[in-house]
Write a structure and sequence with these properties.
With about 475 residues, the chain is α/β, with parallel strands linked by helices. About 30% of the residues lie in helices and about 25% in strands. The strands form seven sheets. Strands 4-3-2-8-21 form a five-stranded parallel beta sheet, covered by helices on one side. Strands 10-17-11-12-13 form a five-stranded parallel beta sheet. A five-stranded antiparallel beta sheet has the order 22-23-26-25-24, sandwiched between helices. Helix 6 (about 215-225) links the parallel strand 12 (about 200) and strand 13 (about 230).
Length: about 475
């Protein structure tokens, strides 16, 4: 006989477990199925372990850069076993914390895999066997995403990895080709360049980080090049084959066919929704090339089933999945009638960091909107000079008619933290004046946000008049 609960959540990543906790707070009896992957890709193979590795890479870089301010260390000695142990320890600590939260909220969690077997029914599978059946008035699907595999002919998959594998390598290869110059590719290019690997970064578009502002792409390319990363743009990878002791990557660049020989290839061409072989089609769940189709209430084509996070778009933003998890829990339990219209920030933990929210300048122009743009470079800040973090800028995009902040982009140290202030501005329809007249502590990098907002009003203090 099926076990009855108020809400079934399939997927234990940052969308699923947050939805479970919010539903429990509202008094629901919740069952969470996480397929022995509590925390999802973000915790186990993505955001958290990669940031642990980026932290280590940054320490190596900082040790070398300290010579410029009179602090001389010996050449950093890299113990990759300890680096891996740091990443593993971080994952374990966070997973233990999530498990404790589930227990304290009296959420029934299972390491089984969920399969949709009816509009209100999920069958729990483990080791190829049925372990039980759950039924509930509502189901939230939160199964996340998988690494996308571009259709590149490949003779042999040995030494061809994805970004999921990048955090668990036994050691840095001598030469690594990364296919994809977006967030994943650029982050791993930074990590492995600091571990002593010669990195080749291949991108199909005419610049790396092609969705960000062009000047941001230019600065990042310059900084990665200084670290020894070889960047190939307008470059299409056409074949991966075996060669003596490694892999040969053939590519077309400006109509010329070329090749590089490396030890390993990483495919970092984004993410795709994880929705195959889960019973969705059999029950009538509509999908498209982006993932599960949902409406403004996160409801699927089956009224009792809702979906959140990467499985409805496959783009890999954990914080967006968490916000949708909260909304979905509240919608299914009658506390909310539709999802919130959220300003979703994006952050890239390259060196320097990149972050954005709302519209970029080129997107506003393509949409035909009249805008005012304010820019302030970190090089004019005392804090940036004192900490040798002068590279980069803050750009604020303001609607010319309403004076409302509609977007922002940042490149520089702490960009991922700084963007939160501007996300608040976009989310709450604040004016440039609201941001500009907020008193920012000195000396901080946050001063650049206020000055960029002032610049949209032609009132910036620490740059000459235009």
């Amino acid at each position: 006989m099926a076990k009855q609960v108020d809400l079934i959540i399939v997927g234990g990543g940052p969308g699923g477990y947050v939805a479970a906790i919010r539903a429990a707070q509202l008094g629901a009896k919740v069952a969470l199925l996480h397929n022995n992957d509590l925390g999802g890709t973000c915790l186990n193979r993505g955001c958290i372990p990669s940031k642990a590795l980026i932290h280590c890479a940054a320490q190596i870089q900082n040790a070398k850069a300290a010579r410029a301010v009179g602090l001389t260390f010996g050449e950093p000695e890299i113990d990759f076993d300890k680096i891996r142990a740091h990443a593993r320890r971080t994952i374990d600590q966070m997973a233990t914390g999530i498990l404790g939260l589930l227990k304290s909220n009296k959420i029934a969690s299972s390491g089984g895999r969920g399969r949709l077997t009816g509009p209100n029914q999920v069958t729990v599978e483990a080791d190829g066997e049925v372990k039980g059946v759950l039924e509930a008035p509502h189901i939230i699907w939160a199964t996340g995403s998988l690494p996308a595999r571009p259709p590149i002919p490949c003779d042999n998959s040995d030494n061809v990895i994805t970004s999921d594998d990048g955090v668990t390598l036994p050691g840095p290869p001598q030469e690594l080709a990364i296919v994809g110059g977006g967030t994943l590719g650029c982050e791993f290019a930074y990590i492995y360049s600091q571990m002593g690997t010669q990195v080749h970064l291949l991108e199909m578009c005419d610049r790396i980080m092609p969705t960000e502002e062009p000047e941001i792409s230019q600065i990042l390319a310059s900084e990665l090049s200084k670290l020894g990363v070889r960047i190939y743009t307008s470059c299409k990878c056409s074949c991966i084959s075996d060669c003596k002791g490694g892999k040969r990557v053939e590519y077309e660049c400006a109509e010329d066919a070329e090749a590089i020989d490396v030890d390993m290839v990483m495919l970092a061409a984004g993410r795709c929704p994880n929705i195959d072989d889960m019973g969705l089609e059999e029950v009538g769940i509509e999908t498209d090339k982006f993932g599960i189709v949902v409406d403004e209430t996160l409801q699927t084509s089956v009224a009792s089933v809702y979906a959140i996070g990467d499985c409805i778009r496959g783009i890999g933003l954990a914080h967006q999945a968490s916000c949708e998890g909260t909304c979905a829990a509240e919608i299914t339990l009658g506390v909310r009638d539709r999802r919130r219209d959220l300003a979703i920030p994006a952050a890239m933990y390259t060196h320097p960091e990149i972050a954005s929210v709302g519209l970029r300048e080129y997107e506003a122009e393509e949409a035909g909107r009249r805008v005012r743009v304010g820019t302030f470079h970190f090089s004019a800040l005392g804090k940036a000079a004192a900490t040798r973090s002068r590279i980069g800028f803050v750009k604020v995009i303001v609607d010319a008619r309403s004076d409302r902040v509609i977007g922002a982009s940042i490149i520089g140290d702490s960009a991922a933290d700084l963007i939160s202030l501007l996300a608040v501005a976009v989310q709450n329809r604040m004016s440039a004046l609201d941001v500009a007249e907020t008193c920012h502590a000195h000396p901080t990098l946050f001063e650049a946000v206020g000055e960029a907002a002032l610049d949209t009003l032609d009132r910036a203090i620490h740059i000459p008049p235009k």
